[in-house]
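Changelog-linked ticket: magnesium ion example.
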Amino acid sequence: MAQFDTKIYIVDKSVDNVDIYAHLQEAARWIQEGEVVAFPTETVYGLGADATHSEAVRKIYAAKGRPSDNPLIVHIAQLDQLQDVAYAVPDKARKLMEAFWPGPITFILPAKAGLAPEVTAGLETVGVRMPDHPIARALIEAANTPIAAPSANRSGRPSPTTAQHVWEDLQGRIPLILDGGETGVGVESTVLDVTLDPPVILRPGGVSQEELQAMIGEVRLDPGLQDQSQPARAPGMKYRHYAPHAPLYLIEGKGDEAVEKMRAAIMEQVNTGKRVGVLTVDEESSLLADLPVTCLVRCGSRNHLEEVAHQLFHGLRQFDAVSVDIILSRTFPRQGIGLAIMNRLHKAAGGRYYQHKNQ
Ligand code: AMP
Ligand code: MG
């Protein structure tokens, strides 16, 4: 794999004296020349390449260390680009596109010839999304091609929500990172298979099942999302993902009971000499403050799950900056964006729940 002296260009309107236009032109040139560029979207940072160019798309897999059977999402800037990448768009999908695009939802549709086969990992379907971020869309326009882009992290790591996260994972492996500041939603797009009726959520994300159902009626969840013994229909969902370096365990329970369980687990681990990391919420952190926790990460209020989603991946990455032996995390209600939060935490934990020794 080629080595690069990775550059970071600030493309954030709120920062003075940055020539966003010139930076975008250079990024677009790299894409047109068959290289990959990291860029901000409203969900997480993406690692983009020309979706019609096989060699370019292969560089995405190489930079990330991504398994070659895990297809990429194709990003478009305008609705009329959809006809270049997919056909047979069902009415329900059209309705959802009108309601939620540009935005954090990816539609699985029959793929058109013309895309690099590596994009779809050999499947007959393609995932398509129109991102709601001015830099992402301006880059697609300037490159004048649909851009294939997975999250811009090394495979298996928490997705990047800042340019710094991308740098940590990919510096030296890619030529350029466009730094647009923190991403908004903080978890990836919802992946919805609209080749089935009723449509099926393959990955919960920025648009909730409840929001989709309010628009088109019944929307199912892929059984593989609830039951680990069932194969996942999104190839990417079968891999360990989002994981910080230390093993992570989930602690379930309601209110005070969950806090008591967390306190007991922390002390059990500390008493065996472990350095413990804890992922919790603002309201509960003071109830743990008297314990010898090495790294206590708060990811917002338990009453604002959007805030938790926004901070989740940054929170998980914070444990890597200090060395902890074990991470304990609270769980969240599986409603609204909570379903996406729990999907990511469950994966980060490899499905493990903490077992108390005295039980
Ligand atoms: P990422 O780009 O890393 O956020 O991951 C994209 C997700 O979408 C992965 O879970 C993929 O497996 C899934 N995906 C992309 N294209 C398809 C497709 N054609 N069929 C099913 N799942 C897909
Ligand atoms: Mg990813």
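Closing comment: Example verified and attached. The domain at 248-348 is CATH 3.40.50.11030 (Rossmann fold). Residues 33 and 331 are 45 Å apart (CA to CA).
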